[in-house]
Automatic annotation (TrEMBL):
GO terms for molecular function: peroxidase activity. It comes from Rhizobium rosettiformans. The lineage of its organism: Bacteria, Pseudomonadati, Pseudomonadota, Alphaproteobacteria, Hyphomicrobiales. The keyword Phosphoprotein does not apply. This is Peroxidase. Pfam families: DyP_N (PF21105).
């Protein structure tokens, strides 16, 4: 497969945009409120020398990674002019809390119950911190604290530590982070299963996208080129409810694992059902030439192996929509997931009251047709795969339908009464400017931009 010669300006793109996180790692999300633009610009000037670019990712300073993002309200408070601000996508301008009904953040996920701030109540700028050790994380957090020394009008409003659990799996027990698109210009060659390289403009502004257009933003080119958007989601995981439902849906441990695999589309080891539909085969996971090397159209269009309504097939339909009106390549996301909170001990079926879950950073250049489309149409609505109102069995809303069906032997199986295994506890669209854009923003005077 030939990869077109697209030159990405890696030294000007914030590192988390294109790179997988190290394993294991110790990270944090830190949210700030901005009450004084001058103080915010001073903080930014202090932080810029330590921001990690894609070019620096493989060998970061002190084995720690630091990136920064802004909400629309944060950019307004930083001093961007109204005509530039009005040119940003409507999803970014309104903020995720205002779009909760469309996104399915209802019931237990309603923004009134969120415990992480959003753009209209104290989240104006945020640091994404990662390190290879817990000590390294504290050192980079200290750097962020020192950036506030002597400054009034900017305060920390939330802090959430994240990382990889000791099991190297997320809280429901699944190996995470196996599949991702391959992007033109990122270097190297696609792995089996990644498909044709995706146009860089699907994830980074300033490059051609899948529509053959230049992905652009508002205002001067220095502000938007090499920048991108991320949909940040704090998702609580009800591990006890998940384990209890598996126990109630099967007669033995093997049956529980099968139900979990059918809902996810992979065994908990990460082995795809597409390559081993009847039994788990962890040896497949260890081989990057095999663990993602599958498609649906030729071999499993109707979901006999990987159910059409399962989680991985909803968020990445691959070639499974080939004969439909949907064009899946317009709705791709780069997914970054990190766990938070303590593990629920193995075998425990009762909730212990601890907050645990995952924080997602979903990278996209067009929040409307990428993240919000996937969340509203593919995660929370089943029409695109002839599933009616059925939602994602792992992370979907339950107020319109609470069942999940999949082909089985000797007869098709239908699971009913799925509870809310997850609940949104925070969410916001943020903008990650390029390194040069950060410098430009830090040098603004008043509202002159």
């Amino acid at each position: 497969m030939k990869v077109r010669n697209v030159l990405l300006e890696l030294d000007n793109i914030q590192g988390t945009v294109l790179n997988n996180r190290p394993m294991p790692y110790f990270g944090a999300y830190v949210a700030f409120s901005i009450e004084d633009a001058t103080a915010a610009r001073t903080m930014l000037k202090r932080l810029i020398p330590r921001i990690t670019s894609c070019a620096d990712w493989a060998a970061p300073k002190q084995h720690a990674w630091l990136n920064i993002a802004f909400t629309w309200e944060g950019l307004r408070r930083l001093g961007l002019s109204p005509d530039i601000l009005e040119g940003f996508p409507v999803e970014f301008r309104q903020g995720m809390a205002a779009r909760s009904a469309f996104l399915g953040d209802v019931g237990r996920s309603d923004p009134s119950l969120w415990d992480f701030p959003h753009g209209n109540n104290g989240f104006h700028a945020g640091l994404l911190v990662m390190a290879s050790t817990a000590e390294g994380r504290e050192e980079i957090l200290d750097l962020g604290r020192h950036a506030l020394d002597g400054l009034d009008g900017i305060e920390v409003t939330a802090h959430l530590s994240v990382g990889v659990p000791p099991t190297m799996r997320e809280h429901f027990g699944f190996v995470d982070g196996i599949s991702r698109p391959f992007i033109e210009g990122q270097g190297g060659e696609p792995l089996p299963g990644q498909g044709e390289p995706t146009k860089a403009g699907e994830f980074i502004l300033g490059y051609e996208n899948e529509l053959g257009e230049l992905a652009k933003g508002p205002g001067p080119e220095v502000l938007w080129r090499n920048g991108t958007y991320a949909a940040i989601r704090k998702i609580y995981q009800d591990v006890a409810a998940f384990r209890t439902y598996l126990r109630q849906s099967a007669s033995n441990a093997a049956g529980e694992e099968k139900v979990a695999a059918k809902m996810m589309g992979r065994w908990r080891s990460g082995c795809p059902l597409a390559l081993s539909p009847d039994v788990d085969d962890p040896t497949i996971v260890d081989d990057p030439q095999r663990n993602n090397a599958f498609a649906y159209y030729e071999d499993d269009l109707n979901g006999a192996k990987t159910p059409v309504g399962c989680h991985i097939r909803r968020v990445n339909p691959r070639d499974g929509l080939q004969d439909t009106m949907a064009y899946a390549r317009l709705h791709q996301l780069l997914r970054r997931g990190a766990a938070y909170g303590p593990l629920l001990p193995e075998g425990v079926m009762a909730d212990d009251g601890e907050d645990r879950g995952i924080v997602l950073a979903l990278i996209n250049a067009n929040p409307g047709r990428q993240f919000e489309f996937v969340q509203s149409q593919w995660v929370n609505d089943g029409d695109f795969v002839s599933q009616g109102l059925r939602s994602d069995p792992i992370v979907g809303r339950r107020d319109r339908s609470d069942d999940f069906a999949f082909p089985d032997k000797p007869v098709r199986r239908r699971l009913t009464g799925l509870p809310d295994f997850t609940a949104t506890r925070g969410g916001e669209h943020v903008f990650l400017p390029s390194i040069s854009a950060l410098k430009w923003l830090s040098q603004m005077q008043g509202n002159e931009a």
